[in-house]
Amino acid sequence: MLRVLDAHELVCVAAAESSYSLRVNYAEGAREACNFGCIGKLLMAYLDEEESKRLVLDGHVKRFTSRTVLDFDTLKKEWARIRLRGWIYSSGEALDGVKAVAAPVRDYSGGVCAGLGVTFPAIFLPKSRVPSVVKAMVKAANALSLQLGFKDRRASNSKIGKRYGG
């Protein structure tokens, strides 16, 4: 799934449906609150701090589950970790029973213009499988970034840590 921020909303610009009977589906063109899921959190991490603060304080972030983080100071810490890693893993923050991984897509200027992610019913993404999914998402996001004219190869050096939470 590929999503972009449009003002204070997250827009799905491309989505592929799984062939499994148990799956998480998103429709192209669907709009959600700016903090929806791991792609929303990822994109907010790369905004100017004043812009992300405005989105939070003006009430554009929404609670989706009991795991959704809304506190600005906590979000700032999580955003810093996302920027350091170059990817995000989430579990149940947007939908209960769903896990997801996403990585930033950069344009020719080096700015993050979109987030590329994949979602799974939680039973399909055990912790042991997360590193391989992260590696695939980062590789795909980097390939898309290169197609958009991004030249900086440092983005491909995103660290895949051993702890994923949830």
Question: What would your notes on this structure say?
Answer:
- This protein has 4 helices and 6 strands, in the order βββαααβββα.
- A hairpin with a 2-residue loop joins strand 1 and strand 2.
- With 166 residues, the chain is of the alpha+beta class.
Name some characteristics of this structure:
166 residues; alpha+beta; Beta-Lactamase; 6-stranded antiparallel sheet; 4 helices; 6 strands; globular; disordered C terminus
Indicate the topology:
Blueprint: E1 2-6, E2 9-14, E3 31-33, H1 37-45, H2 49-57, H3 72-85, E4 88-91, E5 98-106, E6 112-121, H4 130-147
Antiparallel strand pairs: 1-2, 1-6, 2-3, 4-5, 5-6
Elements, N to C (H/E): EEEHHHEEEH
Structural class: alpha+beta
Task: Please count the helical segments.
Answer: 4
CATH topology: Beta-Lactamase
Arrangement of strands in the largest sheet: 3-2-1-6-5-4
User: How many extended strands?
Assistant: 6
CATH class: Alpha Beta
